[in-house]
Amino acid sequence: MIGLVFLGCGGRRPVELDALPADAERTGHELEAIEATDEYHAAMVEAERILEDDALHEYLQARVDEILVARGLAPDSIRVFVVKNPYMNASMLANGVIHLHTGILARIENEGQLATLLGHEIGHQALRHIAREELSRQREESRVTWTRVAIAVVLAPTGLSPFAFIDLESKGMEGVLARQMSGYSRAFETEADRYGFEAMQSAGYPVDESVAFFQRLIDVEEATRAELNVGDAGEDPYIYASHPALTERKASYEKLIGEARSACAAAAEHCRDLGTEGGSDSSREARYMARIEAAVLDAARADRAIGRRQAAITILERLLAFESDSADAWELLGSIRSARGSRSEEIPEAIEALERAADLAPDRAAVRRELGFLYRKTNRPAEAASSFRAYLEAEPEARDATIIRRFIDEATRPDAEKSNGEGR
Question: Is the pTM of this model over 0.90?
């Protein structure tokens, strides 16, 4: 479990049981968890919080199947879905479903980092961590208490009503939400790290990207806290009651890489699969970025809505570095840069982004309207009039048509160049 929720939980940590036999039947705890996660996933689907993008889904499922096959597991035995949520998180549900938030997909840089994430989450399921986790009554009760307090925070960006989960105790839903917040015990998280590391190595991914992935999450979180002016929550913002800090996770993978390289050296083998040649695979980076446009756009819109303006700009600019023909991304970037409260020096950048959007999608009324106002604001009357006319051609019955025509008249007066537009 990888998440950015600044919440912990009381009670004791889980007592970890010995490894289960491969053919062991499902435990009562597992069956309860499966039922609860089936209901949770169904609620997400019903609330339309699952991102509908067939190409992205097929791509992610192919990456999951690639790892499953590399570990000797059946393809399609684990399914993956993308959740519309700006917070960086991924969770392996007990029913064999992986939920990947748009917020984490938008920050991953390449397929090697994606494989790190998927391998870790698959590890929780393959190693049957839910079955091997025995929670004390004290922890179960405390989970219910703190989950009720935190549930609104967790569900807010998903669009789900907390009332849908009001009877937490009877449905076992507390385990679903608590695990998304705090993950498994440190030992289980470390065990999943090793499983994921071996999975990505078997699938042929450069393992150095595992360390780069966790460093990426650390960098993103530090930038987010700086933007929101949020102070340190303890020693490290990623510390959970039962989840190792990201810095520890990074160190865990560094140790795994060191062990693998030592084993290679001892066997006098060439370690081409350990990321020692050529760094990250640029083709895999480009292929990843070509698939995640919908996830980035969703995360950027949500980031903007919750006040993380620079975070939204950052992920849009990275997407456009690879997918420069995305009219949606240019339009969103321009609208964020031109929004009320933006610095004056950002206006030229906003105009440039919206002009790119207009070139790619000439009939977009909203883009033409926004450009008209920006041209008017920067005393470019001829361009303002042209954009406003294009807007009215696309939306002849626009509610603001009367005032837009007045702006056009003002912009075409002989002395228009001498007057400054005063905004909207």
Answer: no
- The per-residue pLDDT for range 139-185, each reduced to its tens digit, is 444 444 445 545 555 555 555 555 555 454 445 555 666 565 566 77
222 φ/ψ angles, rounded to the nearest 5 degrees:
-65, -40
Neighbours of 161 (CB within 10 A): 12
Q: What interhelical angle do 309-322 and 208-228 show, nearest 10? A: 140
What pLDDT band is residue 327 in, cutting at 50, 70 and 90?
very high
User: In which region does residue 341 sit, left (phi positive, over 0), alpha (psi from -120 to 50) or beta (all else)?
Assistant: left
User: What pLDDT was estimated at residue 281?
Assistant: 67
Q: Which residues lie below 8 Å from residue 314, measured CB to CB, with a gap of 6+?
A: 223
Instruction: Give the angle subtended at the CA of 374 by the CAs of 373 and 380, to the nearest 5°.
Output: 95
**Residue in the block written with tokens 């530090």:** 222
The tally of CA atoms less than 13 A away on the side-chain side of residue 120 is 28
Fold exhibited by the domain 285-418:
1.25.40
pLDDT digits 0-9 by tens, 46-99: 889 999 999 999 999 999 999 999 999 999 999 999 999 888 888 899 999 999
**Ramachandran region, residue 379 (left: φ > 0; alpha: ψ -120 to 50; beta: rest):** left
Q: Tell me the three state secondary structure of residue 134.
A: strand
Q: What is the pLDDT of residues 52-61, one digit of tens each?
A: 999 999 999 9
Residues 6+ apart with CB under 8 A from 286: 322
Collapsing DSSP to helix, strand or coil, 102 comes out as helix
Half-sphere exposure of residue 364, counting CA atoms within 13 Å on the CB side? 19
98: part of which helix (H) or strand (E)? Answer: strand 97-101
How many CA atoms, within 13 angstroms, populate the side-chain half-sphere of residue 46? 9
* Residues 214, 202: Cα–Cα separation, whole Å: 20
User: Which 3 state secondary structure label does DSSP give 81?
Assistant: strand
Contact predicate 53/291, CB 8 Å: no
Instruction: Enter the tokens of residue 263.
Output: 């084993």
Q: Report the pLDDT value the prediction gives residue 232, as an integer from 0 to 100.
A: 45
**Span(s) in the chain for CATH 1.25.40.10:** 285-418
Please give the structure tokens belonging to residue 234.
């303890």
